[in-house]
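Exercise 7. Predict the joint structure of the components listed below.
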Amino acid sequence: MRLWSWWLSTSSRETDPLPLALVRIGIAVVIAGDLLRGAWLGLVPWLWRPFSHGGLSTFQSPYAIIDNIAPLSGGPALVVVTIVAMAFVAAGVLTRPAMLVGLLAYSQLGHLYPPGDRAVDRLMRTGLLILLFSGSHLRLSLQRRLQGKPPVTAIPAWPADMMVFILVLVYLSAGIHKLGSSMSWVSFSGRPMLHRILTNPLAARVPRDLADQGMGLLHFLGFSTVALECSAVLLLTRLRPWWALGGVGLHLGIAATMNLGAFSFGMLAFYPLLFSAWLAGRQYKKT
Amino acid sequence: MWPKLRAGALLFTYISLFVLATPGLESLPSSRQELEETRDDFPGSLFAITEAAMWVEENFRGPLVDVMTPIQRPLRLEQSWALYGSGPHSALRMEIVIDSTLVYRTQDPEHRWLTPQLQHRRIRPMLSSMVTKKNPDNRVGLERFILTQAQAEWPAAEAVELRFTRTPYPDDDTETFRIRRATAPDWTFAAVDLP
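Solution:
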């Protein structure tokens, strides 16, 4: 009974809306930016048309309904819809309807082109789905500002807590998976795993001779990566923002050395939640 | 009443998330036979823990995930959660040769035609499968994409050749895995004998 009471009070807790509002803006900007980059490179008709109409992917998911309705223009139209919806989400105008429209359109893009729908896309969609039920639209909102509404200072905290819990699962899984796949992640002898990853020509951009010179550093960084990921449960403690500093370093490092597109920025979009104690300028226990 | 309902719904969601994304289970052996083969590699207690985890996976989590996964599919939320394990065992590269001129080679600063497109995160999985799979699902789509771009850039070209190579890490002995070539006027890609 005491456990239930604790859970009841935990799930009824309130928090500052600023971190969730920043996550809302971050996810929207990353999704829109990623799609605009694809459009800039002329990839939209190739990626999001069915194979029978000139698209790249031989197969579409059975849930891709748009290719039956408008096979030629449906995918490109969904790209436009998603970008416009994300602009509304970021600006905080008609935020929840825009989130719903953007979420549906973005998931259709994934169904249309499954090979390019990666883990980070799914994570950002999960984030959007949770934000849909949150009060993230009550802060940093152009609509509220134009309407002259006063700033909201407290909203239910459960969406933020749930996203942090998901990040714990993601990082912990990644860390254990690395250990399970190769002990060279944590070994200080032989060739470090990061050497192999950062010299992989398809995904990375570190010259081989430069990587060869930094074996010691790569051993250390590989070990640090696994240590950071396996210690992700610290996100559930007051050490959360300190852990997050390491996470920022990890993702900026990945962004600088690898061609993974939106991955690092999509992950970092969730990080305002991890710095909520510092953002709010008060102690973790009060947030 | 509302706070209790919300607390109950959230509890259910948290349990569901944990079942779907239980950390560590993706590293389990894929079968009993594989587990037995690793018996000598594990200390006894670790083997027993792995065996117990496999039982939980087979009898509890796996069936629950099978039920919950279809619910996530309409919004494409389902995923493996583990992000990234280890790097590839070989350095994989593609080359594009128009007539007899090399115009693209992966990570070659002197042959960069179409590099931004081919490095795009949504295209890269296709290149990777061309160098790792015997019958990659999206071979035809990728060939069509590159051929269209090549014809737009070099309208008078007579032949487009795609070469896929892999270099086992960390050796420098590169092997050619696949060569595909299309020639005017029909521009149909066909396999070329490997050197």
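Discussion. The beta strands of chain B are 90-98, 101-105, 159-168, 175-183, 190-191.
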